[in-house]
Specification:
The chain is α+β, with helices and mostly antiparallel strands. It has one domain: 3-Layer(aba) Sandwich (Beta-lactamase). The protein contains ten helices and 14 strands. The strands form four sheets. It has an eight-stranded antiparallel β-sheet, sandwiched between helices. The protein starts with a helix and ends with a helix.
Length: about 325
Amino acid sequence: MPQADIDRIAEETGFSGVVWIDRAGEVEFAKAYGLANRAYRVPNTVDTRFAVASGGKGFTALAVLSLVRDGVLELGTTARSLLGADLPLIAADVTVEHLLTHTSGIGDYLDEEVHTDITAYLIGAAHELTTTESFLPLLDGHPAKFRAGERFSYCNGGFVVLALLAERASGVGYHDLVRERVLRPAGLTRTGFLRSDELPADAAVGYLPLDGVDRSNVFHLPVLATGDGGIHTTAADVSAFWRAFFAGDIVADVAQVVRPRCDVPEESLRYGLGFWLHESTDEVILAGYDAGASFKSTHDPRTGTTRTVLSNTSPGAWPLARALDR
């Protein structure tokens, strides 16, 4: 796609973020647009760190699968075997695999079929959500939507439950699990869990319109991300992640992770274990959408090409991501 077309779409849509395209590690296009901090007029750069919302689910999946590799968990491990008396509405036959593939049927604290306007959803007590265990009251009380394994239904809460199961099985906190089992093996030095109320100078503040004014998303999201997403990263680290993942540096059996488990025709996609898959090609996708954050990265393992769009607004990434996909 010509640079002039990318610049035109960015200007027409008021894009704030970074567009990055590389092939086998060689950068073909990298450019930043808009402001990382609007109060202080700090511009985004290609090295700015952005929250990637549900893009972090891929990291959760790989942390869990590394525990499966080491025999700490199994795909067939039931959630109930580690939850004990917690979250009693989760059915006894729900397994790790069901949770990884969004086929668990459990009720979701943030059901995107109900909360269609993500910017209107306020999580409540966001400052208290600093650990996976602190999510238990939020996860509780949601009746099952269907029987485990019956169908695909995207479930944010299911990935928080996965983080909880990983912690209880390993005795290691979720954030440390991801750091040691995903970030370190992949060499992701600019990726990490940042508190939204103390973002460093190189991280973009997420913005959404409230009462006609663009305001920070600090009250809309957990102060510290957990299993269902929200980790901060850079465009370069995203590309490094894809290369490390397909090289087998994180988990050896990459084919198992990207094997299609579900067709998702309403999205014109398929789903593996924590990753979206193109409906007809080998391309693998991480994507995220939340209040003040949007992200899509598509990797083609055949050519080694990565196309990444990161934005610090809710709708920002999508026009450019669609154009790049075409």
